[in-house]
Amino acid sequence: MRRHEIIEAIRVKILTHDLRPGESVPEEALAEEFSVSRTPIREALAALEVLGFVTIEANKGARVSVYSIDGIRQFFEAAEPIYLSVYRIATERRTESDLEMLEKVLTIIETLTPDGDVHSRIMAYRAYMNSLAGIAANPFLISVTDRLIDYHIFLRRGIVDTLTSSELRRAAQVNYDHYRLINDGVLAADAEAVCAAVIERLRSSKTFLLENLL
């Protein structure tokens, strides 16, 4: 496996809680799974530490990062202006083929919303948000947005495990409704509507995270 593939594979394990917050990252097991030596695993973990997904301690190895109130607040402080820039540009640049692709992904999310497994829903939301960032076609914004998207998923995934089935279904429906509003704005080429929906989405998510952590 190439370096970026190893980074992505470990990142997905963290996002889906195959590796949970606070857990030690099993370098040897990952090296065996990916058929590589421990050196590329350590290089991947160093890259993931920069992204905030793991913490590496001397002579102790890497652990999956844990959540903090300050971390959540800092994330949303950075996320709102960047998301607004990306989604505004995407709304202005989207093509008919882009709209078809976004609608297909949103349809998948809709089918997963009532009772779909969490892993599939996470990956579908990730695909939708990354698709919007790709439509913006700004490599600087795409890079930072990719990091924000995954960290947002990382934060929410930790709360999801604490919810009851009914709470999980309700949260999934709220998420879907927000993304439907965003998509409707993109479809109508209405950047102001998209930005309003993004702000509502982020503020709702921030409240959800803080209420469930406090």
UniProtKB/TrEMBL annotation:
One molecular function GO term is: DNA binding
Which species is the source of this protein?
Pikeienuella piscinae
Which residues are in the HTH gntR-type domain? 1-67
Give the InterPro entries listed for this entry: GntR_C (IPR011711), TF_FadR/GntR_C (IPR008920), Tscrpt_reg_HTH_GntR (IPR000524), WH-like_DNA-bd_sf (IPR036388), WH_DNA-bd_sf (IPR036390)
The answer, when asked if DNA-binding is one of the entry's keywords, is yes
Instruction: Output the SMART domains linked to this UniProt entry.
Output: HTH_GNTR
Listed name of the protein: GntR family transcriptional regulator
Keywords (alphabetical) are:
DNA-binding, Transcription, Transcription regulation
